[in-house]
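hiii so my PI (J.) wants the whole complex modelled not just the main chain, which honestly fair. so below is everything: two entries, each one labled with what it is. i double checked the lines twice but i was tired so who knows lol
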Amino acid sequence: MGQKLLMKGNEVIAEAAIRAGCRHYFGYPITPQTELMHYMAKRMPAVGGVFLQAESEVAAINMVYGAASTGHRVLTSSSSPGISLKQEGISYIAGAQLPAVIVNIMRGGPGLGGIQPSQSDYFQATKGGGHGDYHMVVLAPASIQELYELTVDAFNISDRYRVMTMILGDGVLGQMMEVVDFRDEEIIETYDKSWAANGHGNKREHNMITSIHLDPAVLEQWNIGFQNKYKLISQNEQRYELFNCDDAEIILVAYGSVARICKGVIKEAAAQGIKLGLLRPITLFPFPAEAFEKVLNIPKAFLTVEMSSGQMVEDVRLTIEGRKPVYFTGRMGGMIPTVNDIISKVKEIKEKHD
Amino acid sequence: MEVVFKAPHALVDVPMHYCPGCTHGIAHRLVAEAIDELDIEGKTIGVSPVGCAYNNYLYFNCDMVQAAHGRAPAVATGIKRSLPDNIVFTYQGDGDLAAIGTAEIVHAATRGENITVVFINNTIYGMTSGQMAPTTLLGQMTTTTPFGRDPKVNGFPIRISEMLATLEGPAYIERVSLHDVRHIRKAKEAVKKAFKVQLARKGFSLVEVLSTCPTNWGLNPVEALKRVEKEMIPHYPLGVFVGADLEV
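here's the output for the full assembly
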């Protein structure tokens, strides 16, 4: 059953959001995620939803804040420079504990950078980005099918914990087309939203959505609450894929479209008699420490591959804590690492450890 | 005994933190009276600003959402688009609305967003201790214009109501003043009309309220009210800029 369609990544995210019950989208155009907006502009009126092109990314994220305050499922999307502009609102959404979903289809930076794919917003996505001690849940799909499934999950996770969830993709995933197999019915989890500001109807006390607490003792208590929530999320929500790790000499660590390239590397290396595995984080926050514990004793070393100067590799090192050597290779600025680039690095590491 | 005057239900019965002689308290009361008289408290959602009124979510008895500096019109848009049958208002000062939030107010207005904006113009930043606002009058001394606002350095005061009135989106824009009882009564009618415009789904409504800041102006409350009349009204004339003929 289900419905199989050939679709572009950006459009799949939009369709998945609608299937997940999201009826509110606020955005601002930026390459390479704009097809998501175009899809919403057409589809939202057809399903009785709201599509609104905001005057800026700043306004769009604040519209998200408003819609999320009413308890509705809401989405915004952008790409790297636009996500920087949204950081103010993201911090407020975290502080006010509102559930909402945001998509970052990353492009090369810093500054206006370029429009080719990149993974250089890993720090911004996983470490906070805006001001204050907070995290978003960060999901990193590696296929069009996963873009669909993780977008649906993102709405459920956001509602479950009252957090913002980010779909962190890159220009490759946003722009590529693949077959997606839609389920007949989505699992839309429902949670208590009696906190929402939706009019008290003279039936309850007035609700207040806020992130300001001028008494430091009170603000600390809020922060302790946030940290406890992040711990709970870390216990419950770590996701990852282990591929070909059982007897790997070196385990590659990569997420998103780079993980796909790494699968090609594993095949090519096998043809050359080198056994490689792949540890693919699917949740970047919470970082899947469990996966590293499972395979820690198998390889001689880990090699992290990213389209950045080496950002996730810091979390890999923090997780492995010196128990195994950790190497890095990557490309920047919108350049994509090739199979040969990665195999050269693998051989270099092998020489050191054989 | 018949009760002829009481606190509005839409105001929570707690002490307010505003300075003596500040007109925020009066403006809050006018909003609350309008909510009571239109019997809309149960379906109203207010948006609090950044500035002296940042925590007025504690004072209004309807559901409230606190917004980032200047973003209240965007937040209100998100709320109103989610709950089109509810009543949504923002309460914003001149630093919030006329400086950092200029884009948000202009675009909410031009979209004809069906929300009500209560805009407090006291020509100064109050909460952060008396800096120049976009509305600060020429020559006015503030902590960031200690020698008076000089147009060569700081440009000219901005007239928000007139500027927004050039747009086609707004349904109703009026500037009122709180400097004496007669004007407070007119202000009350304007605030109530703004909510009625929203109830009638006519679109964007804004009431600019000329207000005092005795603390940061360095004036006593009586002198502050006189300043509104003598110095502010000549630069910010009172009246209806959009929707004079609108019957609601």
